[in-house]
Amino acid sequence: MNRYESDVNQKTLTKCKDDLKNASKILTWNKRLLLLLGLWPESPIDFLFCASAVYYIFYLGLDFVSFVLFLRKKILNVSIFIQLLAYGHISARLLLLRRHNKTFGILFTEIKRDYELRNFESDQELRMFLKYNRPAKTMIKMLFICSTFFGVVFYVRPFLTTYFVHRTIRKAHRNVTAPFFWNTYFYKFHKITTINVYAMHYVSEFPFSILTGIISCATDCLVLTLGCHLSGRLAALSHRIRNVDFRNGSQEFKAVIRLHQQVLRRIAEMIEDSLSSLMLCHILVASILMCIVLYKTLIRIILNFSLLLKCLRPGKRIHLINTVILLFLNISRAVQAAFYECKWYTMLLQDRKLIILNLLRSQRPIRFAAGGLGTFSIQLFSEVLKSSLGYLSVLRNIVK
């Protein structure tokens, strides 16, 4: 039992424990999503992951076959290329989750320990920690709602269109071949001629749509959880630094310094390293997708609903990640300011040297690196998008 637990009454203690228990539900959400992929670090299921990966890559291969067949006819189908790029991005995210699975396991173990009351010295410190948990849960809920809505609309719309077109043709008694509309461009091994065969093929692709949604939500949920949790840890740490008591000697201050180093070295650096490849995939694929979609929309003059949907999804993801990065920047500045605002002038000389080292370290803000491109940010995304539009314009002139 720490000082905080001994100072509060039983009623307040129970409420604080309930708040922490409610905040820890975010870990349960991550666990459920990763379990569906066989990638929960504490109990990985290799067979489930391999089955999911093989199933997804098989359909990705069918999409690639369709793209190649169109190229052999000297037709560049932009819609198939957009879909191939989007599904390739999803499969890369699945493989990256597997690659860094052990690192995520260590991070989740550290996060679980942070939801214990003994880690906090005061009620205000606890509130500052929970302050960053609430927006994370809100963003994840909105992410689930948007992903479900877009997924249902994207899957159901072509099927309903086909149904109403065939119904209209039958009522008109026209002797014409009714078209079949698809939500994907996968290669079909035989020609679809009847509505029953079409329905069977369409329903058979439903698990693929579900798996796509699970992978997408799992990676986004993981990024939001890690980012907002680290922001909460740093917010609580900044409050403790400001209010450190030097009357008890330098032991309490050294404990705060150790906590600062643990958060930065063990947690922050692991998050940066494990998410670097994922951020690189996000920014490159989102830039290319939005570039092609916007360009195709400008050529057609009209805004296609499917194109708008494909443009909104990467844009939504970039916005969410940028929100987390802004939290990082603000809380990193708060930690740096806390070192300046604490009563460092009452310290012993050896402790003053120690605080200088931590001041220097806190000047480097925590960031999400996008591989070798630099720090993930809206500015970097704008630069990559601008370059992509330039290359696409040059390519169009060459083709002409």
Automatic annotation (TrEMBL):
Keywords: Cell membrane, Membrane, Olfaction, Receptor, Sensory transduction, Transducer, Transmembrane, Transmembrane helix. The chain crosses the membrane at residues 33-58, 78-96, 138-156, 208-232, 275-298, 318-340. Belongs to the insect chemoreceptor superfamily. Heteromeric odorant receptor channel (TC 1.A.69) family. Coiled coil: none annotated. It is found in: Cell membrane. One of its GO terms (cellular component) is plasma membrane. One of its GO terms (biological process) is signal transduction. It is a multi-pass membrane protein. GO terms for molecular function: odorant binding; olfactory receptor activity. This is Odorant receptor. It comes from the Eukaryota.
